[in-house]
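Proteins fold. Shown next:

***
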Amino acid sequence: MIRLSSMMPKAFLMGIVELVDMVGPEEADKWIMAIGKKLGEKEGPGVEGAREDNINYMPICPFANELIEFVEIEGERPSQFMDIIKHTNKKRDESDRGWEFPAISHIFCILHHSYRKHRAEMAGNTMLHLGCKSPLSATVAYNDKAIEKAGMSRDDVDKILEKSVCVFRIENPTTE
C-alpha cells in the first residue's frame, strides 16, 4: 500500500518507468539529470555529506527507504531502470571525459549525482563520483575513469564504502 506521505517519490519512480516506455532510456536519463540540476539550483552552492580531506561521502543513502518500498510494491526493480543505467554506463565508458559521469548502483544515483555535481560547481568545485553501493543489494558500482583521475584505486574507494554508500572526490576545492 502506498501511504500519501510517500506518494510523490513513488510517483517519480513510476514516472521514470513510463518515460522510458514512451521515449526511451536516453531521454529519460536527460530528464533525470535535468531534474537533479534544477534541484541543485534551488538548493544553491555547497557540498553535503561527511568529509575527510578532499573525499566526500554519504553515510546513508538519502533515497534508500523510497527505493526499497518501491521495489517491494513492484516486486522487482523495473527493467526500465536497468535500461537507463546501462545507457548511462555506456555513455560513460565511451566518453573521453568519463569521470564526469556517475557511478550507478541504483536509479537514484543519476539524480543524486546531477544534484551534487551542480551544487559543487556553483561553489567552484568539481566532484568526481568514485563509487557507490545499493541499499537493495550488495551491488557496488565504480566509475573507474573518475577513480583514475582522482589518483586512487578501487581498494581506496572500498575502504570508504565500508562506512558509507557513495564516495566523491572534491577536485579544485574552494572555501564554501
Observations:
- The longest strand covers residues 126-133.
- The longest helix spans residues 25-43.
- The chain has a mean pLDDT of 90.
